[in-house]
Amino acid sequence: MPETPFTAEHAGLDPARLPVHVAIIMDGNGRWASARGKNRLLGHDQGYRTLKDIVYACDDLGIRYLTVYGFSSENWRRSQEEVGGLMTLMLRAMQTEIEELIQNRVRVRVSGRMSDLPADLREEFADAMRRTADFTGLTFNLAINYGGRGEVVDAVQALARKVLAGELAPEEIDEAAVAAHLYAPDIPDPDLLIRTAGELRLSNFLLWQTAYSEIYVTPTCWPDFDRAHLIAALADYQKRIRKFGAVVE
Question: Of 39, 75, 104, 204, which residue is the catalytic one?
């Protein structure tokens, strides 16, 4: 019997009302592992497997952009073992998955301060972005060594350099100018922000871009987040009325 295709219609969703851009704070890997008496790195490894499934689920559903919080600028404060393990996991994942990503025409992007990452990981990310740059399917944006405040600081510094060079007048700096100097100005703001593991905070993720994002929080830890959980988040999103500060009659 042929497998039922994973489409918006088959998932009971309205394809015309899907979010264009979904952002995810993938929280709870460590707690998932600790609850099972396992090393935190095993939780991150299972989280990687979950991420792979969710990337292709979003692609199948017709989501255009997916941004995930892979490694925050604050995560360097974790133990040397965990940070090193995460760097190794990201390198292995990129090396393992790149051919399948290319086969599925998924465009890879990385947002964050890449200069602080290990050289081999930077090169792997750069190679993935180069090889997938022209694809027009799902854009998979990894926020790595990313912090929302740091992103705004970097944008302001770039604008200040233009002012000093005489390329820009201070009064020309508006919201559009700031947005144009963020890490991924060509990617639209997230319509839906999903956070797993029940925490009710943004954790310095896409602070500028999520000003009007709909937020969905689930108590499910990221390693247990599956396609059914994704559909539940999207279905909840489709029940909402987006006002963007206006009054909707």
Answer: 75
**172-220: per-residue pLDDT in tens?**
999 999 999 999 999 999 999 999 999 999 999 999 999 999 999 999 9
- Annotation marks residue 145 as catalytic: no
Question: What single-letter DSSP state applies at residue 118?
Answer: -
Q: Is-above-0.90 flag for pTM?
A: yes
- Spell out the domains of the chain, with CATH numbers in brackets: 15-134+183-238 (3.40.1180.10)
Distance CA(113)–CA(213), nearest Å, equals: 24
User: What amino acid is encoded at 73 in this protein?
Assistant: S
Helix (H) / strand (E) element for 123: namely: helix 119-132
Ramachandran quadrant class, 10 (left: phi over 0; alpha: psi -120 to 50; beta: rest): alpha
For residue 78, the 8-state DSSP code is: S
d(C-alpha 74, C-alpha 19), whole Å: 28
The yes-or-no answer on residue 27 being catalytic is: yes
Q: Which residues pair with 142 in a beta bridge?
A: 68, 110
3-state secondary structure of 198: coil
